[in-house]
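Exercise 7. Predict the joint structure of the components listed below.
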Amino acid sequence: MLKQRIITALILAPLALFAILYLPLFSFEIMIALVMGLGAWEWSSMSGMTRTFTKSAYAALVVVICMILSFLLPTDLIWYQGQLNSLYTYILSVAAIWWVVSLAMIIAYPSYTSVWYTSKILRGIFGFLTLIPTWVAVVSLRTSLYDVDPYYGASLIFYVLGIVWAADIGAFFVGVKFGKHKLRPEVSPGKTLEGLMGGVFASSAIIAFAALHYQVDPSRIWLHVLVGALTVGVSALGDLNESMFKRCAGIKDSGTLLPGHGGIMDRIDSLTAAFPVFAFCYVMWMA
Amino acid sequence: MSFLISAVSFIVALGILVAVHEWGHFWVARRCGVKVERFSIGFGKALWRRTDKLGTEYVIAAIPLGGYVKMLDERVDEVSEQDLPYAFNRQHVLKRIAIIAAGPGVNFLFAIFALFVMYLIGLQTIKPIVGNIEPESILSQSHIQKNATLTQIGERKVVDWEDVAYEFMSFIGHDEMSIKWTDDKSSYEKSATINISQWQFDPDKTSVFESLGLTPYRPKVLTVLGSVENDSAAQQIGLQPNDKIVSLDGTSMQNWEQIVGHVSSRPNQLVEVEVLRNGQVVSLKGTIGSKTEAQNTKGYMGFTPTLEPWPEGVVFVHQYGLGKALSKAMDKTWRLMTLSIEMLGKLITGDVSVKNLSGPIAIAQGAGSSASLGLVYFLGFLALISVNLGIINLLPLPVLDGGHLLYYFIELLSGRPVPESVQEVGFKIGGVLLLLLMSIAIVNDIARL
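Solution:
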């Protein structure tokens, strides 16, 4: 199982790396839209859709919406005079609100679930709110300052990936090596207090490294740190959000697309929260 | 030696403040009927322990950087059936709020107490009399003259330089500041509102007064020697305290700056000194010593000047009776609290740079320098740090008391505890923030050393 997991990762990681760094912007948009489409396919099951036709239509709709956005706004106009296009800014703001709502839903769970649980349409809309802003966020970050430095946007994407993955990797290794105090033995036996601290430490290291790399002005370090910490937290929220919908639908893995990893959504759940929220903060205060 | 004073004062200060904070949690927990298993000052290996009748273990532990109160809690360990009513997590949310809030609360009470004692003992301070205002500086807009006494900044009265420094700092990031003062010419209070939007203040380089172009009044430095170091060049030449320096190498000396200039530019050179001693001019001869600082060798004599005495009423003592001391202490604590919150706000808006964050090393130095000035100054320092500790602990960051309070307030609204999975999300955000801010503070401290 672990071997299969590592092989899958070894194939996917270079592909992702290549796509982020070298794919022409339009192809990059298509590729991210397709990944969102795969995510949507899995989300449709989590929303209680069962017929293959409905599921395909739902996934196709997500891809089509992304592509309509892409055709409406050519890549060189996404940022105009240092400002993100207002439609994209608006979508990111809606996403930021959605994640606050999601937090409230998770805190209240299972109370008030009756409001949304019975409605497949509402659960489908939650999927849109999760996936489409992720596409907007990734594309906006990738094209940021593209005419100055074509790799700057890529570095922002790696920064977000770094924050999120460092938390997981740090938690995993520190947990395995030093884990003693279990956080919640009955719910998730693997999680330990030491692992949690390891994740916190690893993410902090990435944020500190980024502060040096981007030469953040001392008067703005506070903001940089705050947004970094928020991204760490919100990525964990993405995880909880997906778990909540899976639990409602009574499924364990979101799909079987990635051997050893479960589904696409299980891999990108943290990112669907981290990217939109980070991009929102970036556009509002840091760009 | 100064390192030793710093270290000892730091440990004493931290020990007192941690003990006070944890005692707040402990006392209220007991009142609420929660079983307290351990009350520890410091972490790690126990150096001393005692257990009382109610089964609470009191511990002083080896690592003095904090402390904790361990309450009976089902989330942490197994609790037997009959002990359940005494477990922290079984208490009504309002009781839990009281227990957690008690720590920071007692920090504020302690600040009042420390300042109260300080005002009872009495504290020597200096009236804010202007020595000089730099032309073209920010304060030069105001027509404040030399020898004016500052009386009010913004909405607050000021009576000594410490007040002035605090109130100036509260205006960081504002566009305008109003000042009131009196001068010798008339008894009327004058006032001005000055534009401070161009004010640049970097605490690493200048004091808040210098950055505004203000020099506090200091008595004149006389050309009369105050002290002469043992085995110094000055002693070998034959200089004695109370000698008035008349001339060096035949050049007559009008003021102390001239003397320093003459000496420092002539390391290891021969010098002829004329002094006035007991009404008689005495001529002496010898060699100027030297001192190397930052690869610059300068002439050095090893003597210090005397100062003109302070004018009547400029140096005064804050000392009050019981009632007045208490109300003063409460006012001051409240002002320290509001200032701390204002400064935190400015940190977030970027008006104050994170470069100004101070960590444990700066606190240790502060503890050392205030302790070496005497008990009253140390009390003032303790009050300041206690207030800061209380405010920081109330920040709604999980890991800190304020984070727990946030969860309990959400529980109060939603009717049930915040899920542990969500609490974990909060701990991650709080953990990363605290870890990074602490690193910044420590890096700042080291950069300042």
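Discussion. Residues 2-121+380-448 of chain B form one domain.
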